[in-house]
Amino acid sequence: DARVTQTPRHKVTEMGQEVTMRCQPILGHNTVFWYRQTMMQGLELLAYFRNRAPLDDSGMPKDRFSAEMPDATLATLKIQPSEPRDSAVYFCASGLARQATPQGTTPFFGPGTRLTVL
Amino acid sequence: GQNIDQPTEMTATEGAIVQINCTYQTSGFNGLFWYQQHAGEAPTFLSYNVLDGLEEKGRFSSFLSRSKGYSYLLLKELQMKDSASYLCAVRPFTGGGNKLTFGTGTQLKVEL
User: Fold this and answer.
1) Angstroms from A38 CA to nearest CA on chain B
2) A88, A93, A108, B39: which has the fewest C-beta neighbours closer than 10 Å?
3) pLDDT (tens digit per residue) in A6-50
């Protein structure tokens, strides 16, 4: 069945290192979201793309985070340099927004990348 | 801004019915979602309400009152596997906006 896939599932790194997380959205979905989940803040939207174009990245710390969609089957979230406060689970989600439903789409979540920055 | 409130924890008995409430205050409203999240797993979509009333899907139902800024998720015939966190999320904008704002979740524990 169709699922969002994410790699790696777990990542432990040291402060200052670059971290790249990858996501393959469900085939045919045109909207991709990056969320971050922590115990304190819950689920927060970092950025989202429609048809590979960034629509909103206001939730993302611009100085160290970047998100891209090199093609329709790959979305990346990069942190450089990483800091201990970035430790969280990062979820990618995808959805299909149609012209007939301009109100938006339902996000379907991938399994997440659990990031630990020491 | 957006504010979403849910109880932090609830406990219920296997076979019983439980209602998880969610209240919200948002700038505009364009739909409310419920997700289920088991520990260590991804959130799984359960239901979506955009109009007032009750949406039923098997053992799960979701209700919305836009005038009251209120929703609930009703789980019937509880099973042990229903022990999970239940997340309420609101989409505040119209015109294609997709910025779902999530509550912090209600941790449901189902006991024998």
Assistant:
1) 10
2) B39
3) 999 999 999 999 999 999 999 999 999 999 999 888 899 999 898
List CB contacts (< 8 A) between B105 and chain A.
Answer: 42
Q: How far is B61 from chain A (nearest CA, A)?
A: 17
The CA distance from A65 to A81, in Å, is 9
Alpha-carbon distance of B71 to B59, in angstroms, equals 17
Q: Minimal Cα distance from B31: which residue of A?
A: A103
Neighbours of B8 (CB within 10 A): 9
Closest CA–CA distance from residue A12 to any residue of chain B (Å) = 16
| Interface subset of B 85-104, CB within 8 angstroms of A | 87, 89, 91, 94-104
Report the C-alpha gap between A42 and A65 in whole angstroms.
19
CA distance B36 to B32: 14
Please, are residues B4 and B102 in contact by the beta-carbon 8 Å criterion?
A: yes
Asked whether the beta carbons of residue A104 and residue B96 sit closer than 8 angstroms, the reply is yes
| Cα B65 from Cα B53, distance rounded (Å) | 7
Q: Reduced to 3 states, what is the DSSP secondary structure of residue A85? A: helix
Q: Does residue A8 have a cis peptide bond before it, meaning omega lies within 30 degrees of 0? A: yes
